[in-house]
Write a structure and sequence with these properties.
Layout lengths: L1 E6 L2 H5 L5 H8 L4 E6 L12 E3 L7 E3 L1 H14 L4 E11 L2 H7 L4 E6 L7 H6 L3 E4 L9 H12 L10 H4 L18 E2 L2 E2 L9 H19 L1 H5 L1
Bound molecules: adenine.
């Protein structure tokens, strides 16, 4: 999979992709993540990427020109499954959306800033608008990092144990059951006997039961869906 991220702050995105699972996925050639600095495509003398909004009002708006030039350049090079704009007024990200996006070959992600991008960018180029939750971030970069992480870990071969993505919370609309590791007892707190029993059939049943119990308690909405 190839992911192109359009941003005015590429440095903000370098950290999340240069460690751990995201780093290994790129090293293994399972994903190629390209950061593009929108400012490099500004034709103005001072490399501006924003301007005052028409009609007045506080806050700058990201200009269409450098974004359009960059998107057109990338689109001429390959076909994109989705051109995504990260915005608090987009569709709320969930596991189903990440699963669907992980099946694509090329995706482009535009990170917004200030008051957002000129509406004509959205009309002309954007095929999907995604929010990572009902709160406002300073820009789309951290949201894009969350989206990319949730997609890349689903790509075949990225996680060592392939079943581990399949048993994540949300994959079957259930939260994960509780997990334990050594020691078997800490300050009087014991690991449930069943997990030490070696009876894997019973352990599976116990885990299913606990996952359902936790989901009913914390996220009953998942069961209603
Ligand atoms: N940009 C600013 N806030 C955002 C959010 N909650 N989700 C996606 N992009 C954003």
């Amino acid at each position: 999979m190839r992911i192109d991220i359009l941003t005015i702050l590429p440095a903000l995105l370098q950290g999340p992709f240069s460690d751990s699972i995201m780093k290994r996925a790129q090293e293994k050639g399972l994903v190629e993540i390209n950061l593009h600095n929108i400012r490099d495509y500004s034709t103005s003398k001072h490399k501006n990427v924003d301007d005052y909004q028409y009609g007045g009002g506080a806050g700058m708006v990201m200009s269409i020109e450098p974004i359009a030039v960059l998107i057109e350049k990338l689109k001429a090079e390959r076909k994109y499954d989705e051109i995504i704009y990260m915005t608090p007024d987009g569709e709320i990200l969930d596991q189903r959306m990440s699963n669907n996006l992980s099946l694509g070959e090329n995706i482009m992600i535009l990170c917004g800033h200030y008051k957002g991008v000129d509406e004509r960018v959205r009309q002309q180029y954007i095929t999907k608008e995604i929010s990572i939750g009902s709160y406002v971030l300073s820009g789309g970069e951290l949201a894009a990092a969350v989206l990319v992480d949730s997609i890349v870990r689903l790509l075949p071969g990225v996680l060592n144990d392939e079943t581990s993505a399949l048993t994540d919370s949300f994959q079957d609309d259930l939260l994960s059951p509780p997990v334990y590791t050594r020691p078997p007892e800490f300050n009087g707190m014991k690991v449930p006997d069943i997990l030490l029993s070696g009876d894997f059939k019973k352990i599976d049943l116990w885990r299913e039961e606990k996952a359902l119990e936790r989901t009913k308690l914390r996220r009953p909405d998942l069961l209603n869906d």
